[in-house]
Design brief:
Radius of gyration of chain A: 26 Å
CATH superfamily of chain B: P-loop containing nucleotide triphosphate hydrolases
CATH architecture of chain B: 3-Layer(aba) Sandwich
Order of helices and strands of chain B: HEHEHHEEHEHEHHHHEHEHHH
Shape of chain A: elongated
Oligomer: heterodimer
Low-confidence stretches of chain B: 8-12
Helix content of chain B: 40-55%
Distance between the termini of chain A: 64 Å
Shape of chain B: globular
Low-confidence stretches of chain A: none
Order of helices and strands of chain A: HHHHHHHHHHH
CATH class of the largest domain in chain A: Mainly Alpha
Number of domains of chain A: 2
Largest sheet of chain B: 8 strands, mixed
Structural class of chain A: mainly alpha
Strand content of chain B: 5-15%
Chain lengths: 208, 317
């Protein structure tokens, strides 16, 4: 199959255009079983690479045809001749479906905070990072512990423990580093610099 | 001659015209061609149709063994030597409506069909006095096999779920496609197609390559053959299926043929592995005769009924 030209999704799944929904699912499951893993049926015909490429097309076809709304949009555009096959990518169909069913907007903005140039400079110049200073930056940016937990998906209990550098209440070291990276990101800091420095002092504390 | 006799004669001639030629082939030997052809024969005869099984396996005949009969000296050698007509060689069996033509059995010299021999044989097969003539071929894609396969009304290709058998099945399909295209292509176009295919097999072509897109672009090759084949597709049978995955294999092979060769084949069904089969061959009584009410017999019955009077199979929703 040539990667340059696009195929009709029905052709990909070897279906007729009026196939009921359950046949779409069956066809997809069969196609997936055929072109993934070491199915003997593709032996000596398709190389592993070719099978993987086919699988990508098959997945894309099912994402559209397996979804009633997307399939209807695809059918309408294909049959009305408004779009050629080349324009009918998964992305364009998804875009069209969003126009039909607009997604509810969620508030994700971080609360505003009072800018303090002197403190900004101190943050930028800081090389030694520890829990106490992370807490200071968080409080300066007006982010509560629970808000931080919501952004980073880290339990607020661990957020507090990271700020207190309380090893007893934290999981293994590798996880701690992950938490620090997440928190630094949420605070708009250079996560690598912060995490490296934080972990150094965290390990020093452990040694004591 | 009065009108009644004339009517009888014409109806008789029409009936002869209606003889259906079913050919059973495979890429690999030992996958159950003879078992499938005899089982199809027995099932069709049970449904009340007259059936003649013709054993054309050059490497040695087996049909009589599977049917539990003794080999007859009146075999197909006499036809090829010109001593008898094919109809004269038809031997009745103990089973109602079922007869067969004994294959090579007493020939000590290597035998082979020539292209002309097979061309002459095809109309002879069609003239046999039976509703269905089932030809059990030898394994492999010889030119004579392919020619006969092309002429058949129903083409059966038998495979087992083993990779060796699947590989040879694809080789058979490739040979069949190329053989059929050869008749419709200019020699130049045919030559370049063969060299392209060879390059692809050796992986020197820019990937990805698809036989399908190549054929669509190539000039000098008429692809009408593909359309013609969709009306009488190759019917794949997966024999000795041991589990659900083996059964699904038929659908996978169908999909591969569709994507790679752009050849629509039909998956006629799978036949479960059954120890009763080899045991019945050993005691020389066909399994469908010895055990007529098993799931195995049911699978053949369903397949035959579907082929005689196709119904669209659809889940009720």
């Amino acid at each position: 199959m040539q990667a340059t030209s696009r195929y009709n999704y029905y052709e990909v799944l070897e279906l007729t255009a009026n196939a009921p929904q359950h046949e779409v699912t069956t066809a997809y499951e069969r196609a997936r079983a055929t072109y993934s893993g070491d199915n003997p049926a593709i032996y000596t015909i398709f190389s592993e690479q070719e099978a993987r490429e086919l699988l990508v097309v098959i997945e894309e076809a099912y994402q559209v045809l397996g979804n009633k709304i997307l399939r209807t949009i695809y059918d309408q555009r294909l049959l009305s001749g408004r779009s050629s096959l080349n324009d009918l990518t998964y992305e364009s169909i998804l875009e069209a479906s969003k126009q039909v069913f607009p997604e509810a907007k969620t508030e994700k903005t971080v609360p505003a905070y009072q800018k303090d140039d002197a403190f900004e400079k101190e943050v930028a110049a800081r090389t030694e990072w520890d829990g106490e200073f992370l807490k200071k930056v968080r409080e300066y940016k007006q982010i509560t512990v629970s808000k931080m937990s919501e952004i980073t998906k880290i339990n607020s209990y661990y957020v507090t423990a990271v700020e207190n550098m309380d090893a007893g209440n934290l999981p293994a070291i590798v996880f701690v580093r992950g938490y620090v990276v997440q928190i630094a990101k949420a605070l708009g800091l250079d996560e690598k610099k912060v995490a490296d420095s934080y972990m150094k002092s965290f390990k020093n504390n452990l040694g004591k | 001659m009065d009108q009644a006799v004339l009517d009888f004669k014409t109806s008789r001639e029409n009936k002869e015209q209606d003889t259906k030629l079913w050919v059973v082939a495979s890429g690999k030997g030992g996958v159950g061609k003879t078992f499938v052809s005899t089982s199809l024969g027995i099932t069709l005869s049970k449904l009340g149709h007259s059936v003649a099984i013709v054993d054309l396996d050059l490497s040695g005949s087996n049909v009589h063994t599977v049917l539990g009969l003794s080999p007859s000296h009146m075999n197909i050698r006499h036809y090829f030597e010109g001593a008898k007509t094919l109809q004269e060689l038809v031997i009745p069996t103990p089973f109602p409506h079922l007869s067969y033509v004994q294959g090579f059995w007493d020939s000590w010299t290597p035998t082979d069909f020539s292209y002309t021999q097979i061309q002459n044989l095809i109309p002879e097969l069609k003239k046999l006095r039976a509703d269905y003539v089932i030809v059990d071929m030898g394994a492999g894609a010889l030119e004579a096999h392919l020619e006969l396969f092309k002429a058949a009304d129903e083409k059966f290709l038998i495979t087992t779920p083993e990779p060796t058998s699947i590989e040879k099945t694809y080789r058979f399909i490739e040979s069949f496609v190329c053989h059929s295209l050869k008749a419709n292509a200019t020699p130049d176009a045919y030559g370049s197609m063969i060299s392209t295919l060879r390059n692809h097999r050796q992986r020197t072509l820019a990937k990805p390559f698809s036989f399908r897109s190549y054929l669509k672009d190539a000039s000098g090759i008429h692809c009408d053959f593909f359309e013609a084949l969709s009306s009488t597709p190759v019917r794949l049978i997966v024999n000795s299926s041991r589990n659900q995955a083996n059964e699904e294999l038929g659908f996978s092979m169908k999909s591969v043929c569709n994507k790679y060769y752009d050849l629509g084949i039909d998956y006629a069904g799978s036949i479960d592995y059954d120890n009763a089969v080899w045991q019945s061959v050993r005691v020389r009584e066909h399994v469908l005769v010895a055990q007529p009410f098993t799931p195995l017999a049911g699978q053949f019955l369903a397949t035959c009924k579907q082929l005689i009077a196709p119904e669209e199979l659809r889940a009720v929703v």
